[in-house]
Structure formats: structure tokens, C-alpha cells
Amino acid sequence: MDTTTGKADRPLTEADKREGFIRATGGFAHAEQRWAERAARGMTDAELADALAFELGIFGGSSGPDSLSLVYQGAGLKIWISWRIQNHLTAKPVFEGKRTITMARHVYGIKDPADTQLALF
To answer: SS3 breakdown of the chain: % helix, strand, coil, rounded to 5?
Structure first.
């Protein structure tokens, strides 16, 4: 139960997590174009971490009625996603570090040019 609204907590679905991730990493102007360019050339984990840190920025977030509540920060590649406002200092992020990189590869189709397994497909 959400103590601020008296409503039952709404669980996050995989679609909610994907939507929140895209909103957190696509908020700056021309982000969609940058992600397409990154996907076309591929990126190492280090390059992708730098790109994610740029897109997430120092710290940000958004929330609204019947909308996902987001908090995100470039340091640590952390993204908190919830259906209610949460304290990012005490809540565990939905995405952090390597998990954020993995989700970016999945969502944006970014291959790792150092992955020798790619040559097999």
C-alpha cells in the first residue's frame, strides 16, 4: 500500500521498465538520432557507458499523475522506475551499471564490435 495515496502499489511490467529506460536515456534533443548512429557503428562497453552517462546527465527525473516516476543519474548509470514517487537514496535502482549497459544493447540494438561471437551470425 502506498502510504501517500492510500492506493495499492502497481507492479512494474517489463514493458514499463522498457518505457522508463527509453524515457530516461532519450530525453535530450536528437537522442534518437544519436542512438541510431551508435547502433550503426557498434560500441564497446566503455564507449556505451560514456554514451549512457551523457544521455542520463548528472541527475534528472520526471513524474505525473498515472505516469511512471523516473529518477536517473549518469554516475553509476542508475535508473529508478516506479509507479509512485520514491526516495532514490533508499530505493534500489531498476537499472544500474552493467545492467544499464545490457538494457541499452537490447533496446537500441547496439552490438559490441569486440564480441567475436558476432562474426558467427
So the answer is: 40, 10, 45
